[in-house]
Amino acid sequence: QVQLVESGGGLVQAGGSLRLSCAASGSIFRLNAMGWYRQAPGKQRELVATITRGRDTNYADSVKGRFTISRDNAKNTVYLQMNSLNPEDAAVYYCNAEVYSSPLRKLDIWGQGTLVTVSS
């Protein structure tokens, strides 16, 4: 069993910053790509940023230059530093990870989500 637990969401004023964290725990043989997605009310879940085990990154155009994804492989944790937040960034942010719980068992795991609210 593998779990992802997010933290760091909350209420912030427009222009402010937040840092999200997501820690993986459980039966982890290897943790591959990790990422953050978000879903605003009435909208589909969308990619925010991803990072490979080797720390190659990919960002949605809407967050480039404002958000930074990083990871600590020793802690099985991925972070999302969010700067210059605007009301359009408000959403539930979900962590995702590709995890091998054994050499041949690959899992696609989602966290429970953390709410980010941005006041104008």
Short structural summary:
The protein has strands at 2-7, 10-13, 18-26, 30-39, 46-51, 57-59, 67-72, 77-82, 91-102, 105-110, 114-119. With 120 residues, it is mostly beta strands.
Question: What would you say this structure looks like, in words?
Answer:
It is a single chain. It is built from no helices and eleven strands. The protein is elongated, with a radius of gyration of 14 Å. The model has no long low-confidence stretch (mean pLDDT 97). The termini are far apart. The strands form two sheets. Strands 2, 4, 5, 6, 9, 10 and 11 form a seven-stranded mixed β-sheet that branches. Strands 1-3-8-7 form a four-stranded antiparallel β-sheet, with no helix packed on it. The protein has strands at residues 2-7, 10-13, 18-26, 30-39, 46-51, 57-59, 67-72, 77-82, 91-102, 105-110, 114-119. A hairpin with a 2-residue loop joins β9 (91-102) and β10. With 120 residues, it is mainly β.
Helix and strand topology:
Blueprint: E1 2-7, E2 10-13, E3 18-26, E4 30-39, E5 46-51, E6 57-59, E7 67-72, E8 77-82, E9 91-102, E10 105-110, E11 114-119
Parallel strand pairs: 2-11
Antiparallel strand pairs: 1-3, 3-8, 4-5, 4-9, 5-6, 7-8, 9-10, 9-11
Output the radius of gyration: 14 Å
The helix/strand order is EEEEEEEEEEE
Q: Give the overall shape, derived from the CA principal axes.
A: elongated
Termini separation comes to 40 Å
Task: Quote the beta fraction.
Answer: over 45%
Largest sheet: 7 strands, mixed
Structural class: mainly beta
Number of alpha- plus pi-helical segments: 0
Indicate the low-confidence ranges by residue numbers: none
Helix content: under 10%
